[in-house]
Amino acid sequence: MMKCREATQKMSEELERPLTLGEKASVTVHVAMCRPCRNFRRQAAFLRDSMRAYARTPEDDERNPSQ
Amino acid sequence: MADLDTPADDASGAAEALNDPQFVEDLRRRMLRFATLQLSDPHLAEDAVQEAFIGALRGSGSFAGRAAYRSWVFGILRHKIADQLRAKTRYAAAPVENPEPDTMPEGIFEPDGHWTEGAAPADWGDPHASLQDDQFWRVFEACLDHLPGQQARLFMMREFVELESPEICRAVGISTSNLNVSLHRARLRLRGCLEQHWFGEEGARP
After folding, report:
1. What's the pTM value of the predicted model, to 2 decimals?
2. In contact, B23 and B53? CB cutoff 8 Å
3. How many angstroms separate the CA atoms of B146 and A47, rounded?
4. Fewer beta carbons within 10 Å, N or C terminal of chain B?
5. Chain A positions in Cβ-Cβ contact with residue B83 (cut-off 8 Å)
6. Of B55, B120, B160, which is closest to A66 when you measure between CB atoms?
7. For residue range A16-54, what is the model confidence (pLDDT) as tens digits?
């Protein structure tokens, strides 16, 4: 059974690459039974959202500010 | 050229922001710290920051307030850093950084791999609502500043400059598994810091 340390490593890596089917299954089973790891998964995604929101106005994607 | 002429009302937001020396100095210092960390070269960093300020003046943006101006200038800097880092990856011999000791933050996991009692992530409710809160961003910046240098650098390269993993590995000269280990630790630290100072029961979230 995968432990929280390893599960969070996989959940971090899933933001970098597609997990293998085996990895995905292990993570899915782990988070189904572990509330803190479910929270970690949402929070890691939120960190990505917030870091990208840090310097981005709604118009940013429509314009090219480096011009 | 016509597209360099900035209409007066568009310039007013930038002009208003630039008229506040304290605001400009704080913003410049933060941008310089970010650029220096990313580029590992104070002179290139200084140039990139100045170009970003100039670019913001020439751009077609209209700014509703300082937060939008800060966002705009930082966004331009982000593009410049991305270009420079990508250019760097074209040279075969990317310098291998002195790897600083990058340890698993203490007190997060028990030796058996389970969360320690104090470190288990809590439910943050709807965290995205905080993105509209200036106070949240101050906490967020402080938490970023508390990451170890190399973790901060790699995390921001990935999530802010938005380079892909292979680009980062080439630019910095590290392996994919090292990058993944650092990103995991950065995420653990950053979420722990945000929970302690903002989202948690003792945090500052209103």
Report:
1. 0.83
2. no
3. 15
4. N
5. 66
6. B55
7. 999 999 999 999 999 999 999 999 999 999 999 999 888
Q: Which of B61, B74, B179 sits opposite A55 (nearest CB)?
A: B74
How far apart are the CA of A20 and the nearest CA of chain B, in angstroms?
Answer: 15
Query: Does residue B175 belong to any structural domain of this protein?
Result: yes
| From B14-18, B36-40, B52-56, B107-111, the region with the lowest mean pLDDT | B14-18
A with B: how many residue pairs have Cβ under 8 Å apart? Answer: 112
pLDDT at A41: 97
Q: Can you tell me which residue has the tokens 């400009």? A: B24
The reply to whether B119 and B176 lie within a common domain is yes
pLDDT digits (tens, 9 = 90+) for B96-147: 555 555 667 778 999 999 999 989 999 999 999 999 888 999 999 999 999 9
Task: List the one residue out of B53, B2, B48 whose CA is nearest residue B25.
Answer: B53
pLDDT of residue B90: 65
Q: Where are the alpha helices (DSSP H) in chain B?
A: 8-18, 21-39, 42-58, 66-88, 134-145, 149-159, 165-172, 176-194
Quick one: B102 and B196 in the same domain?
yes
Task: Please state, as a whole number, how many other Cβ atoms lie within 10 Å of the Cβ of residue B182.
Answer: 25
Residue B4: which pLDDT band, with cuts at 50, 70 and 90? very low
CATH number, domain with residue B41: 1.10.1740
Residue type, B46: E
What total number of domains does chain B contain? Answer: 2
Write out residues 35-64 of A within 8 Å (CB-CB) of B.
35-37, 39-40, 42-44, 46-57, 59-60, 63
CATH number at residue B107: 1.10.10.10
